[in-house]
UniProtKB/TrEMBL annotation:
SUPFAM superfamilies linked to this entry: NAD(P)-binding Rossmann-fold domains
Pfam families named in the record: adh_short (PF00106)
Record PANTHER family: SHORT-CHAIN DEHYDROGENASE REDUCTASE (PTHR42820), SHORT-CHAIN DEHYDROGENASE_REDUCTASE FAMILY PROTEIN (PTHR42820:SF1)
Family from the record: Belongs to the short-chain dehydrogenases/reductases (SDR) family.
InterPro entries xrefs: NAD(P)-bd_dom_sf, Sc_DH/Rdtase_CS, SDR_fam, TAT_signal
Upper lineage: Bacteria, Pseudomonadati, Balneolota, Balneolia, Balneolales
Domain of life from the UniProt record: Bacteria
Full protein name: SDR family oxidoreductase
Species in which this protein is naturally found: Natronogracilivirga saccharolytica
Length: 367
């Protein structure tokens, strides 16, 4: 008896689920972390023993997310090599982690200076012979105001912002990638922001610098996947850091009150996302941005916006982070009922009509 043909509706839904897997796939990068490359086979295993003896390089780890991530990796048995501009804080963090039994080295470096970044990376390579994971976290918020109002020069001015958030990431990858290509393995995570994906009337310069991080990440991922290197970015939401406090005018009172969880993230919670991205089982997560902002996007219902734009996303609820195939897809208002909700546990009824998939996102052929 012949098999019953699949309906166009089912084909669309199944294709969307397949694309979700591709989104987490990215490329065929191995993502192995040298001595930390042992594969975990139990899907919910919570220990991090697979990071034991991995060499982890971190920029900007004298406080906040960088410091928390350094502590987590050191606690898992990794060898942590980190830098920061504040020498006293760097030494304090180093001593504290060592007192907790971790192996860690603080190295003074200013990511705004290429020679300092080169020396920092070289020192790590000279010490341990390899770099398995690089977390390029150093960043500042820069000037507040419109583009016709902000300060261009001086500390926290526009040029200082670009030197730190953009040049600092370029310099870091410029010297990390050759080390990883030589060993044919490695993971790089660059820190973006929720403002990597939208604009801001008062923090536009910061948003521009973080948009650049996403572009650099995707561009570096393409040619290096064949060398066993995964390059990704992480965009945290509101997190309890000095940077957020400055964003909010000096106080975190009320921060996160309007978010689904009713609070902001702790730095350690973002650090755990970093570790999840570096998991040896995540070999096919590459070249894209992971949003760590706790906003649910599993698409049970998306309200159509007045401009006829909808969101299309891919969510991995088990790993507690999500990979966005496309932040927004424009659909003609007359056809705005066509939604492509990817990896939705309860897909809505889709109209039985033609919806072609193109590139990384579901795009209506009229676009």
């Amino acid at each position: 008896m012949p098999k019953k043909g699949i309906s166009r509706k089912n084909f669309i839904e199944n294709s969307a689920l397949g694309m979700a897997g591709l989104a987490l796939g990215g490329s065929a990068a191995s993502g192995s972390a040298g001595t930390a490359s042992a594969s975990r086979t139990s899907p919910g295993e919570s220990d991090y023993s697979h990071f034991r003896d991995a060499v982890v390089l971190i920029t900007g780890a004298t406080s906040g997310i960088g410091e928390a991530t350094a502590r987590l990796f050191a606690g898992a048995g990794a060898k942590v090599f980190f830098c920061g501009r504040r020498r006293e804080l760097g030494k304090q963090v180093e001593e504290s982690i060592r007192n907790d039994g971790g192996e860690v080295t603080y190295y003074y470096a200013d990511v705004r200076e290429e020679s300092k970044v080169r020396d920092f990376v070289d020192a790590c390579k000279d010490t341990y012979g390899r770099i398995d994971i690089a977390f390029n976290n150093a960043g500042i918020e820069g000037p507040n105001g419109g583009f016709d109002e902000i300060s261009m020069d001086g500390e926290m001015g526009y040029h200082d912002l670009i030197k730190t958030n953009v040049d600092g990431v370029i310099y870091s990858m410029r010297y990390q990638l050759p080390v990883m290509r030589e060993q044919q393995s490695g993971i790089i995570i660059n820190v973006g922001s929720m403002l990597s994906h939208r604009g801001s009337d008062t923090w536009g310069a910061y948003a521009a610098s973080k948009h650049a991080v996403i572009g650099m990440t995707r561009s570096a991922a393409i040619p290096n996947a064949q060398h066993g290197i995964r390059v990704m970015s992480l965009s945290p939401g509101g997190t309890r850091t000095d940077l957020l406090k400055r964003f909010m005018g000096g106080s975190l009172d009320g921060a996160g009150a309007n978010s689904p969880m009713g609070r902001i993230a702790e730095p350690e919670e973002i650090g755990y996302i970093v570790m999840g991205m570096c998991d040896p089982n995540m070999k096919f997560l590459n070249g894209d941005d992971v949003k760590g902002d706790e906003h649910p996007r599993n698409g049970k219902k998306l309200d159509r916006q007045t401009d006829g734009t909808v969101a299309a996303l891919c969510r991995d609820s088990t790993a507690r982070f999500e990979c966005h195939i496309a932040d927004r897809i424009s659909i003609p208002p007359a056809e705005s009922h066509l939604l492509l909700l990817i990896a939705n546990p309860q897909p809505p009824e889709l109209p039985d009509t033609s919806l072609h998939l193109r590139g990384q996102a579901g795009v209506h052929p009229a676009l």
